[in-house]
Amino acid sequence: MRVIKLGGNELDRPGFLGEIASAIRGFPQDVVVIHGGGQAVDALQQRLGVRPVKVDGMRITDDASLEAVVMALCGWVNKRIVAELVGHGVDAVGLSGVDGGLLRVRKLDARSVDLGWVGEITRVRIEVLNVLLAQGMTPVVAPVSLGPGNHLFNVNADQAASAIAAALRAEALDFVSNNEGVVIDDHLVPELDEAQAARFIIEGKINGGMVPKVNAALAALSGGVPEVRIVDIDGLPDPSAGTTLHVAPSQVQDIPLSSETHDES
Questions:
Q1: C-alpha angle 225-111-9 in degrees, rounded to nearest 5
Q2: Structural domain count of the chain
Q3: Cβ distance 132 to 100 under 8 Å?
Q4: 265 in a domain, yes or no?
Q5: Sorting pLDDT into bands at 50, 70 and 90, what band is 137?
């Protein structure tokens, strides 16, 4: 079993979903896809006259913002991904965390700020995914989930991917984004452990949307997923590409940096 999380920033790039389909067909394991779609949500919020506000990569989700999240992620983004995957030979089926009670959540306590209708996953009903996987289908999951009082909640897609990978006892979890991996001082970090990640976050070298991504990767490792990477689409088929995350402290004093420089484009 392999879980692949697709970053929303890449979804509009021509050819991206075709490359994802090719990678999925090449993997020997069953695959579950989780997707974000922040740019689509931002665009819809602005069309609805709602200003997008984020804190450490997390979207503040009031009532109006939640409507935009549900419409964009469960509708346009999810169905575009499914259509492209099916068109490229992957038997994909779209659903959200609400369908079948796949993802149950409680309100996320962010301590410093009230994020509104943002949830923290408490349960993954893997039977919903296993039914599809048993039929040879590839689930494509939008991270809108079900919370107390049957209310819909927005969930960070990285955290949803981490929880699903752990619940499925996946062999591997790949966070696919527009970054080749974690980049520090214009250099790719091939390997990163928990202590190093915490230091880089405190120093501000890991920031923005990369913060929840790194934290979600470490949570997946703690949940028993043996292989977790942050990688771009070009590196997805190559097991040595991207940044591999480790829970155990590194045994070396210096953080290894590759000779490649980071392209911000």
A1: 55
A2: 1
A3: no
A4: no
A5: very high
Q: Show the DSSP H helices in 27-174 as ranges.
A: 38-47, 63-69, 78-87, 126-134, 157-167
Domain of 148? 2-246
Q: Is 137 among the domain residues?
A: yes
pLDDT at 42: 93
**Residues tagged active-site:** 5, 8, 38, 158, 213
Task: Indicate which CATH number applies to the domain containing 180.
Answer: 3.40.1160.10
* Confidence (pTM): 0.89
Nearest to 145 by CA among 105, 116, 117: 105
Q: What digits encode the pLDDT tens for the residues 83-103?
A: 999 999 999 999 999 999 999
Indicate whether 231 belongs to any domain: yes
Tell me if 45 is assigned to some domain: yes
Which CB contacts under 8 angstroms, 24+ apart, belong to 27-30? Answer: 27/2, 29/1, 29/2, 29/171, 29/172, 30/1, 30/2, 30/133, 30/138
Residue 248's pLDDT is 64
Give Rg (Cα) of the chain.
17
